[in-house]
Amino acid sequence: MAASIEILSGHRFRRPRFTEILSSAFVDDPFYTFVFPDAERRANLLPWLFDKLLSYANQYGLVLADSNYHGISVWLEPKHTGLLPLGILRAGLFLFPFKVSHLELKRSIMLAQVSNQLHRQAVSTPHFYLEAVGVEPSHQGKGLGRALVQAGISHADELQVPSYLETHNPANLGFYISLGFNIVGSEKPFPSAPQVWGLLREPRVA
After folding, report:
1. What angle do the packed helices 39-60 and 15-25 form, to 10 degrees?
2. Is residue 96 part of a domain?
3. By CB neighbour count within 10 A (0-12 exposed, 13-18 middle, 19+ buried), where does 27 fall?
């Protein structure tokens, strides 16, 4: 599938549309089904959460989408791969503890701590961080997700920096490995929690 992938900002940054795509793509992701096990509550909370994450990425990252707005990949740039306090404030992410229950907050913090540890262990040099990639269900399986990730890692190759991501879905591992990522760490906080994998791709020389 040929897809025209572009970096979007300004008036072309369609946050409601991108929020819709990511919410539908991640509704059954092991991370979110663990943190928000109730399906109805999860469906209500994900749009709010992805709206805030997209607001953050619009300040400190790259948002890539196809020309028809069927898919999106969200990358944090090398200087901003950790969530910055000012960005959290500006994006409204500081409200998250007030939107969720104590147990949901505890679960999300627990998984985030494991992911952050894997991230620190995997790469200490400047790098791009793939925060999320999603394609609306009716356009999945047509190569759009691959094109969205490839556009991001091509940008990283131009700058000669690595690309890093985490996934909680074992079904995604083959996809990322086929794009040049290698598993550099894996951890399971406790038996009922989902496994998390850290994957790193070194830049390719043109």
Report:
1. 130
2. yes
3. middle
CB atoms within 10 A of CB 59: 12
Token pair belonging to 123: 């790469």
Which CATH number is 147's domain given? Answer: 3.40.630.30
Would you give per-residue pLDDT tens digits along the chain (206 residues)?
456 877 765 556 788 889 999 999 999 999 999 999 999 999 999 999 999 999 898 888 888 988 888 999 999 999 888 777 888 889 899 999 999 999 999 999 999 999 999 999 999 999 999 999 999 888 888 899 999 999 999 999 999 999 999 999 999 999 999 999 999 999 998 889 999 999 999 999 86
Residue 109: inside a domain: yes
**Nearest CA among 143, 125, 200 for reference residue 151:** 143
User: Which residue(s) pair with 135 in the sheet?
Assistant: 71
Q: Which domain holds residue 50?
A: 5-201
Q: What is the pTM of this model?
A: 0.91
Residue 32 maps to a domain: yes
Tell me if 110 is assigned to some domain: yes
One-letter-per-residue 3-state SS of 152-201: HHHHHHHHCCCEEEEECCHHHHHHHHHCCCEEEEEECCCCCCCCEEEEEE
